[in-house]
Design a protein that fits this description.
- By secondary structure, the chain is α+β, with helices and mostly antiparallel strands.
- The chain is built from three helices and five strands.
- A hairpin with a 2-residue loop joins strand 2 and strand 3 (24-29).
């Protein structure tokens, strides 16, 4: 499945919790018991979308600014879309209503 994040607001599902400690972010699915650790870029994507409630494009701009050595803009966007697709497939996030 390919997401279209520019036109979609996202929310973490109710059974998903996360904690940040320093540069580390751990996501826990309290139903399955699975946990996920995110890399630096994925941490910024998750926090931007779910803690700061920013748009996908705004988060991408923040990531580009914060990680000047990140891949080119197209690759960075593709990587972020891939993360969203994975989180949807793992039932960690869903489109927000409205």
């Amino acid at each position: 499945m390919s997401t279209n994040p520019e036109n979609q607001s996202w929310k973490a599902k109710e059974h998903v919790v996360w904690r940040v400690k320093g540069d580390l972010l751990v996501v826990l699915d309290t139903v399955s018991g699975h946990y996920y650790t995110l890399n630096e870029v994925a941490v910024e994507l998750w926090r931007g979308l779910f803690d700061e409630k920013k748009s996908f494009q705004a988060v991408l701009e923040d990531i580009r600014a914060g990680f000047p050595d990140a891949p080119d803009a197209g690759q960075l966007e593709a990587d972020c879309r891939e993360s969203l697709d994975y989180w949807v497939a793992e039932k960690l996030i869903e489109p927000a209503a409205g």
